[in-house]
Amino acid sequence: MCDELEHCELGTKEYWDNQYKEEMKNYNNRGDVGEIWFGEDIVDRIIRWMNKENINKLNRILDIGCGNGMLLIELYNEGFKNMVGADYSENAIMLARNIALKLQCDIEFEVCNVLQENINLYNFDIVLDKGTYDAVSLSIDAKENRNKYIQNMQKMLKPSGMLILTSCNWTKEELITQFESCFKLKESIPTPEFKFGGKVGNVVTSVVFVRE
């Protein structure tokens, strides 16, 4: 059991449509790609972990809730070529496609709601999530939506496929409990620590789950 997070606008499609509409405008006017969710340091840590694990560059990789697509673009520059970015915001996908085209990165982007019943994205070796589970956790009917998310992650991945999930709302222990019906923990990716009142904690949690 876990306490649900309080619903807020970050859990609504309207918020993200407006966010990426503005980012598209900024990109068209100034070439600004927009916010790197959780910052470039987290992106670097995920990529370093994947390189350390010698992840096959031909693996089929999905970034769910890809936003502006910058995580996939960084991976593309590292030699990963078989990748798909998905987001439920049409504006996000439009922005990601435009950025990838300008940077000459051959990445597929699709509009997809991770909570829909009939997901059309299957057989991935790796699914990346950098903040999407957090947004789901802030939605109305969050508990039901979290369960749908977990079930669909299992459907999207091949047997023994990996889900690399980064969250600022849940601890490692909470995520292990929430995902234990379909996934087991493989490893935690180190994230920046903070100290307060003599205790050490993490602002962001990154975990690697393996589909059972």
From TrEMBL:
It comes from the Eukaryota. CDD domains: AdoMet_MTases. Keywords: Cytoplasm, Methyltransferase, S-adenosyl-L-methionine, Transferase. The keyword rRNA processing does not apply. Residues 56-187 form the Methyltransferase domain. Its EC number is 2.1.1.-. One of its GO terms (cellular component) is cytoplasm. It is found in: Cytoplasm. One of its GO terms (biological process) is methylation. GO terms for molecular function: protein-lysine N-methyltransferase activity. Transmembrane segments: none annotated. Its main location: cytoplasm. HAMAP family: Methyltr_EFM4. S-adenosyl-L-methionine-dependent protein-lysine N-methyltransferase that methylates elongation factor 1-alpha. Belongs to the class I-like SAM-binding methyltransferase superfamily. EFM4 family. This is Protein-lysine N-methyltransferase AMK59_8215. The lineage of its organism: Eukaryota, Metazoa, Ecdysozoa, Arthropoda, Hexapoda.
